[in-house]
Write a structure and sequence with these properties.
This protein is mainly alpha-helical. 76% of the residues lie in helices and 0% in strands. The radius of gyration is 17 Å and the shape is elongated.
Length: 125
């Protein structure tokens, strides 16, 4: 994927998460999984997308996503049908962290592979 596509995907995922978190409960998508699995999976996907979209800024992205998970959970106080919980914020932050680590590892693997390919090409000359 190109950088523009991954950046767009990352921001769209975060916008969707924000909408689902703050919107009235009846607008929340219904799934067959438990809410904790939904929360963790959504933030895992966002963490992975942001790590792939911004590979050089992974520390800043990690801080923003993890603290953002807590802040977005806190925004539920603005909705009369929602309730903010520390447990939910922790699940979201953990999901983001796992996604970020997976993205970081993939970026390192991709970087090592590119260097190995470059070394192979150089050796062939």
């Amino acid at each position: 994927m190109t950088s523009k596509i991954t950046k767009l995907l990352a921001w769209l995922l975060l916008a969707f998460i924000l909408f689902v978190t703050v919107s009235p409960i009846e607008l929340r998508p219904h799934t067959i999984e438990t809410p904790d699995i939904d929360r963790a999976a959504a933030y895992l996907a966002a963490g992975l997308a942001f790590a792939l979209a911004y590979p050089r800024q992974w520390k800043m992205v990690a801080a923003l996503l993890i603290f953002g998970a807590i802040a977005i959970e806190y925004l539920q106080y603005l909705s009369p049908t929602r309730h903010a919980r520390l447990h939910d914020a922790g699940v979201k932050a953990a999901g983001a962290a796992v996604g970020l680590v997976a993205g970081w590892a993939f970026n390192k693997w991709r970087e090592a592979r590119a260097m190995a390919d470059a070394a192979t090409d150089f050796a062939r000359r």
